[in-house]
Specification:
single chain, 530 residues, alpha+beta, 5-stranded mixed β-sheet, 3-stranded antiparallel β-sheet, globular
Length: 530
């Protein structure tokens, strides 16, 4: 090393003409070795040496990571070993059902490690409510799909917190009043019957079909009709649906935004969808100013905003067309995956419990003997059908958890003095919490939702967390329940169906929402008047 330094220095000094190097210095310098083997030995850069150094560094990092995990985990139950950096990611991707079942079984509070981040998982209903009702953006922030903020935008209502969020919710609540929901039901009934007419054709009847895409299309079209009405013609609707589908596909790819990839297309598609919704908001405003009656949720909101224009106290709550369009997009997405999941589970579970389906049909015969259109008054009389819908949601909650990210060190459990470090992911398990407090919770039993039961009010208010709770509780809770109730009421009287069971039929697919791995059904026509 010294010879190399001296030799390099000599070369540089000799290259500078104004500097004279004494002869005695140059005589003491040794030339650099020219043999490549000697050079490698002198530099210490042999392949074996580099690999050894890299191995030492990797082992050191692994040990440091494991020590950090042990320190954070402490006495919490959880896996005994974690893959470097990846942690439990491999198992979670390979077999998500087993991964989450094992995590649930660890106890009320458990630990895991995913992609270099600490994960704290709780199944305790009290803790779940405490997490979901915590409304301080400086401490906890909702984290949905990794691509969600990029596709839906940072100002999506799901990511809002604080005063702005409260003001927006206060403006939106009247859109889900009893009167509004009754109007929506008539439109929901209309679209469901249109699809039943399509399913009654030779293309669908007596053929084995996967029900999930059928449910998704019905649900999406129902949302379009209820939320944005008939502002788009067939060509515009086709364009809108195409961009909307591109947004959906962005949730099925890695969170890497590159030109031309699925995520990039989804972000561009959102711009187009919001542009079209902004235009619709403007058209709705003109329509409401002309004194026309509302024919969709967008109209109802615009009419409210028009009514506030003359109210000096309401100006702070007014929104421009772009904000209205962006919020309507939030409604469309919120109504999509969760309701589609529940429609699929409805078809699946009714084949497993034909006695329940028969009771639903008997109730429909009493309430709607002439196949009447479902209205708000009629749906409220469907006591047993609504119990079945609530049990489907309890038994198979579409969203099994709502992840939160700690924005600062946060006390998860005072009694255990458990402080969650900043950057950790907190998972309140709605899957387990919603089952607690009920007798025989893993049995499908609609009667548990009867108002005659002593534990009805307790479990409904405290442990029925399907729609969340707190400031981010689902605004469309009753809308979704009405939609599922109308669907079950109508399909029970219009069709019989069978489901073919395959080796994977009873496995659960875990995505943003849960589905059976397959739902292969065969429809046959039924006379709704008989």
């Amino acid at each position: 090393y010294q010879r190399r330094v001296r030799g390099s220095l000599s070369t540089k000094l000799l290259a500078v003409g104004s500097i004279k190097v004494p002869s005695e210095m140059t005589s003491q310098m040794h030339p650099l070795p020219h043999d490549p083997v000697i050079i490698n030995q002198a530099s210490g850069s042999s392949p074996t040496g580099v690999l050894s150094s890299a191995l030492v560094i990797l082992v050191s990092l692994f040990l440091l990571e494991q020590l950090r995990i042990i320190f954070q985990k402490r006495k919490l139950p959880g896996p005994s070993f974690y893959f470097p950096f990846l942690g439990g990611l491999i198992e979670m991707v390979r077999d998500p059902q087993s991964f989450w079942e094992r995590q649930d079984n660890y106890g009320e509070i458990s630990y895991n490690y995913i992609l270099g981040r600490h994960m704290y998982h709780t199944t305790d209903p009290e803790l779940c409510r405490r997490i979901l009702t915590h409304d301080n953006p400086q401490e906890l922030k909702m984290k949905l799909h990794p691509n969600a903020e990029m596709i839906l935008g940072e100002n999506n209502i799901a990511f809002m917190q604080g005063p702005k969020h409260k003001t927006l919710r206060a403006n939106l609540l009247p859109l889900f009043s009893r009167k509004a929901l009754s109007n929506y039901l008539i439109w929901q009934d209309q679209i469901i019957r249109q699809y039943f007419a399509q399913w009654s054709s030779d293309s669908f009847l007596n053929k084995e079909l996967e029900f999930r895409p059928m449910a998704r299309e019905l649900n999406t079209r129902t949302s379009y009709r209820v939320f944005i009405g008939s502002y788009l013609d067939d060509v515009q609707m086709a364009k809108f649906s195409r961009h909307y589908q591109e947004m959906n596909e962005g949730f099925l790819t890695f969170p890497v935004n590159l030109p031309g990839n699925a995520l990039n297309k989804a972000i561009s598609a959102r711009t187009e969808v919001v542009r079209m919704l902004t235009w619709m908001a403007g058209e709705s405003k003109k329509k409401m100013k002309s004194g026309n009656e509302p024919t969709c949720l967008l109209d109802m909101w615009m009419k409210r905003l028009m009514d506030k224009e003359g109210d000096s106290e309401g100006h702070s709550e007014l929104y421009d067309d772009f904000e209205v369009g962006s919020t309507v997009l939030d409604f469309l997405f919120a109504a999509q995956d969760a309701s589609t999941s529940s429609l699929v589970w409805t078809m699946s579970l009714m084949t497993e419990y034909p006695d329940v389906l028969e009771k639903v049909r008997k109730e429909q015969k009493l309430i709607r003997p002439n196949n009447e259109v479902i209205t708000g008054d009629i749906v409220e009389r469907m006591t047993y059908t609504r119990q079945v819908v609530r049990e489907i949601l309890r038994f198979r909650p579409p969203a099994t958890f709502v992840p939160q990210e700690a924005q600062a060190d946060w006390v998860l459990d005072d009694s255990k003095k458990l402080v969650v470090p900043k950057g950790s992911i907190i998972i309140p398990s709605l899957w387990v919490a919603t089952k607690k407090g009920y007798s025989d919770p893993n049995t499908f039993n609609p009667d548990r939702h009867s108002r005659d039961r002593e534990d009805y009010e307790l479990n409904l208010s405290k442990n029925f967390l399907v729609f969340g709770t707190g400031s981010h509780a689902c605004l469309g809770r009753e809308y979704a329940i009405n939609h599922l109730t109308a669907f079950l009421a109508l399909i029970s009287t219009h069709f019989d169906w069978k489901r073919r069971i395959t080796p994977i039929s009873h496995k659960i697919f875990f995505g943003p929402t849960i589905y059976p791995y397959d739902c292969l059904i065969t429809l046959s026509k039924r006379d709704p008047l008989n």
